[in-house]
Design goal:
It contains 4 helices and 2 strands. It is mainly α. The chain has one domain (3-85). Strands 1-2 form a two-stranded antiparallel sheet. Helix 2 runs antiparallel to helix 3.
């Protein structure tokens, strides 16, 4: 998967669960995902994404491929939807 395809896959996610699944797709043969400067465990990142809460967890996800930005955006709109339904 090219870098552009990874960005596109991240940007197409519509929920934190979908984003978590995409993160797992990015894992290499050792179960790692490339961050900006180092590698991270894809499974840990996936679980972190599923439990993502702002503003407490914004530094827990890499900026690579727009993952952190997408998680923040999805978390924001999820919170708005929960408040509407409360």
């Amino acid at each position: 998967m090219t870098k552009e395809q990874k960005y596109d896959a991240v940007n197409k996610t519509e929920s934190l669960d979908e984003l978590a699944d995409v993160i797992l797709l990015f894992a290499d043969e050792n179960g790692m995902i490339q961050g900006r400067t180092r590698k991270f465990h894809a499974l840990t990142y996936s679980l972190t994404c599923r439990e993502f809460e702002m503003p407490y967890m914004h530094n827990y996800l890499t900026r690579e491929f727009g993952i952190r930005q997408q998680a923040i955006m999805l978390s924001f709109y999820r919170d708005i939807e929960q408040r509407r339904n409360a």
